[in-house]
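Work Package 3 (structural annotation) set out to generate three-dimensional models for the target panel prioritized at the project kickoff. During this period the team completed the workflow that converts sequence records into discrete structure tokens, so that structures can be stored uniformly alongside our sequence database. As a representative example, we reproduce one entry of 202 residues exactly as it appears in the project archive.
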Amino acid sequence: MPATAAVPVVESMQHLSELGRALARERDRHRLLEIILAEAVRLTGADGGALYRIDERGDALSFEIVCNATLGWSATTTPPGGLHLPAIPMRDANGTPNHAAAVAHAANTRRSIRIADVRAVTGFDFVSAKRFDAQFGYRTRSMLAVPMLDHDDGLIGVVQLVNALDPAGTITEFTERHERLCESMTGLAGVVLSNQLLIENL
């Protein structure tokens, strides 16, 4: 398994500043999403991740982009044969907020969630993760899901990271520092994306 250590503290703060400027200059929305996911993975030393966007009606989180070092996928490449993951509903048939899926829980609560081992935790079903693992021979263990919000606390999407790696390439847990770094990055990205959407609507 490839080893990708998290970015050191001082370097990460400098990088966030540079990233904010880079995001502000980017005009292609899909390229923005690629940068957001790639940088979240880089800052936390994750093996991979996915980015979900809230649909226009606010009913579901739609899969947008994925990257995974172990599987050889970058944020700018498409997995062989494509990857089609079902949308994750924000509510169940009765209109109750969906808290069974970790990504939907993060979106509904507007709060990040860290999980040490998805196979050992209770309260979430992880249907999508299990399906993904079975299809590609992967082993999802640790997870970090961070909601991406605009300046009015409106939901834009969720960044989901999997399998934090230590310098030796061993899967470990995501830390509070990882969480804060990712929240800072998605905060910058959320403002840029919401501004772009406003301009496009005008």
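Strands lie at 46-54, 60-68, 88-89, 113-115, 143-149, 155-165, 171-172.
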